[in-house]
Design brief:
With about 210 residues, the chain is mainly β. The chain contains 2 helices and 15 strands.
Length: about 210
């Protein structure tokens, strides 16, 4: 590990699990497999001398069983509106390079992959609002994700819940939401009204700073 970096911003993920996601509690995933995506919007950061402010990226992953059993597949999308240096930098971070082993969720996920497909370079439209739990992702013809607050099934009122993980790798605290994703890349993704986590993004090569 020779390059220093730091990123701060916002992130959200949508997967096939029920609200709450058993994976967050060291339990098997809802359907006994994991299929999900993550979107990342960097508000400020650097990778060596490369300024990463405004960089966006998307990760798509699937596993035939629980994540810790491996055999995963992964493809990332890099923003065509970023410079080539910025794309190379965020790709390195997502692939767990220039990172202490298993210090970030990125590093952990990559270690569980049997196949990593070539990155796609597309125009990414991304808005992440942690407070309202409303996020929108549109990446040309590759992926669309929309999130919203969880609703009370009787009254329709918004239901607010959070997960707090003091030793978390992805986040320390995340808002819970409901999301729908449709994607057609190296593999298809299609789930509706399932688990969403929306959180601050704050990482260094050593993980989440104290």
């Amino acid at each position: 590990m020779g390059i220093d970096w730091k990123i701060k911003g916002r992130q959200f993920g949508n997967c096939n699990c029920n609200y709450g996601c058993p994976c967050q509690f060291n339990a098997p995933p809802t359907d006994n497999y994991c299929h999900g995506m993550g979107a990342f919007l960097i508000d400020e950061g650097f990778f060596d001398k490369v300024d990463l402010a405004g960089v966006k990226a998307v990760s798509m992953m699937k596993f035939p069983g629980p994540i810790h059993e491996g055999d995963g597949e992964m493809q990332i999308i890099l923003d065509s509106n970023s410079s080539s240096d910025q794309r190379n930098a965020i790709q390195s971070i997502i692939y767990g390079e220039e990172t202490e082993p298993m210090a970030t969720a990125f590093s952990m996920y990559v270690s569980m992959m049997k196949k990593i497909y070539d990155p796609l370079i597309k125009s990414i439209e991304l808005d992440i609002n942690i407070e309202t739990r409303i996020c929108n992702l549109k990446d040309e013809d590759i992926i669309t994700t929309k999130t919203e607050p969880i609703k009370n099934p009787i009254t329709g009122e918004e239901h607010r819940a959070r997960i707090n993980l003091p030793n978390g790798m992805e986040f320390k605290e995340a808002e819970m939401g409901s999301g729908t994703t449709v994607a057609n890349a190296a593999f298809e993704t299609n789930f509706k009204d399932t688990y969403v986590q929306i959180a601050r993004l704050n990482l260094t090569p050593k993980g989440i700073p104290n």
